[in-house]
Amino acid sequence: MQPQESSIQYSRWEGSSRDGVSVASGPGAEEASGCKRVSRKLCSGKLGISLKVLGGVALFWVVFTLGYVTGYFVHKCK
């Protein structure tokens, strides 16, 4: 059985008498959620950059197509 590691984070609010202390036990206790792991994988590194570029290109073509179709019907000769 391995000993559990714990991480302690201390934050102090300026101009206030409140201090915040959070204790997370175990390695990677913050990463317990599967959604956080998936989003960290898809939103960082080379994969994240390529997904953002592909998403931007796809969004451009969707907006371009909607504008083209809308302009066609608005300016259509009767």
Automatic annotation (TrEMBL):
Keywords: Membrane, Transmembrane, Transmembrane helix. Residues 1-37 are annotated as: Disordered. GO terms for molecular function: protein homodimerization activity. GO terms for cellular component: cell surface; plasma membrane. Residues 1-10 have a biased composition (Polar residues). The chain crosses the membrane at residues 53-74. InterPro entries: SMIM1. It holds the Pfam family DUF4731. This is Small integral membrane protein 1.
